[in-house]
Amino acid sequence: MKSPNQPSRRFRGDVFLVVAFATVAALILGGMLWAKNNATEIKKWRGGNAWYLTYEAASVRSEAQAATVSYQYNPDSFKPDYKNERLARTKLPWSTKVVVNTGKEARVAVTPTGDGLASCRILLDGVRVVASAKSPGPGKPAVCNVVTSSTPESWPR
Question: pTM value?
Answer without folding.
Answer: 0.69
